[in-house]
Write a structure and sequence with these properties.
With 295 residues, the protein is of the alpha+beta class. Helix content is 15%, strand content 38%. It contains four helices and 20 strands. A hairpin with a 6-residue loop joins strand 19 and strand 20. The two termini are 13 Å apart. Bound molecules: ligand LBFN2T5F. Homodimer. Its EC number is 5.1.1.7.
Length: 295
């Protein structure tokens, strides 16, 4: 997959539990995927994606690669759990090893593929201070913040727990079916709510048992997705600190099951699968792409 320094770079179309991922190999290239290219790639049905994971040469000693994360609206994201699993699988297949250390905007992360194909990514430590998420208003306790949607006296969704997993998340707790909420309608309003100066990923969570959460997410910069790994991590840490869940749970998202654990060292791990679909090459400046003949 290694890039050759010419203007087109190889890419893999992959998914992490249905989270649509393009892994672009920018190694050896000085180029970056432009916002216009991302929007153009996403505009075509075959390459509609949630995130591009751009693999760059390492910038920091002790890390294998620098990973840049680009949402389908062209914006940059600090973290992407499902995309990191795709990167681990892609590089593992190429390099014949199982463990990698990456640098992202969220910090240094580790990823490892087990013999059964399940991939675990250490997503770092969560942050809960209002200015770290960030929020536009000071809250001493971010386990429950004042935010609601729907009629003032009968809100449809209200009082989310908020957290940063490197990127901003709001977890709205519900006691009934997460599918009964019009997340496609409320998601964009909440993502862009003035409380979130950098916008936010918006999730609806139903805790079925201390070790089982059902979750749907409206992703910042990407919209409704089949899976959002960092949202699953945020739901688990928010669940544990509000005593709704244990520190380890299966988080069921539309695309399937993720296992999230909040370790004693404060790091959060995310475990799940990744799937290769097909490969091609693309121009990171314009988004023009070609599918390779060979699978
Ligand atoms: N799909 C992701 C999250 C991607 C980034 C997010 N949309 C943001 O802008 O913060 C995941 O699996 O974590």
């Amino acid at each position: 997959m290694r890039g050759s320094g010419v203007s087109r770079v190889p890419f893999l179309k992959m998914n992490g539990l249905g989270n649509q991922i393009v892994v672009a190999d920018m190694r050896g290239s000085k180029a970056r995927v432009t916002p216009d290219a991302a929007i153009a790639i996403n505009a075509q049905p075959q390459t509609k994606f949630d995130q591009i994971m751009a693999i760059h040469d390492a910038r920091t000693p002790g890390t294998d690669y620098y990973i840049e994360i680009i949402n389908s609206d062209g914006s940059r994201a600090q973290a992407c759990g499902n995309g990191m699993r795709c990167v681990v699988q892609a590089l593992g297949a190429e390099e014949g090893r199982r463990r990698f250390t990456f640098e992202t905007l969220a910090g240094i992360l580790f990823g490892e593929e087990a013999a059964d194909g399940q991939i675990t990514v250490d997503m770092g430590t969560p942050k809960f201070a209002w200015y770290d998420i960030p929020l536009n208003e000071e809250f001493a306790d971010t386990r429950q913040v004042e935010l609601q949607i729907g009629p003032i006296d009968a809100p449809v969704l209200h009082s989310p727990s908020v957290a940063s997993m490197g990127n901003p998340h709001a977890t709205f707790w519900v006691k009934d079916d997460v599918w009964s909420y019009a997340l496609d309608r409320f998601g964009p309003l909440l993502e862009n709510h003035p409380l979130f100066p950098e916008r936010a990923n918006i999730s609806i969570a139903n805790v079925l048992a201390p070790d089982r959460i059902i979750l749907r997410t409206w992703e910042r910069g990407a919209g409704l997705t089949e899976a959002c790994g960092t949202a699953a991590c945020a739901a688990l840490v928010n669940g544990a600190r509000t005593r709704r869940t244990a520190r380890k749970a299966t988080v069921t998202v539309p695309g399937g099951d993720l296992v999230v654990e909040w370790l004693d060292n404060d790091h959060v791990t995310l475990t799940g699968p990744a799937e290769f679909e097909w490969r091609g090459d693309l121009d990171p400046a314009t988004g023009a792409w070609t599918r390779s003949e060979a699978a």
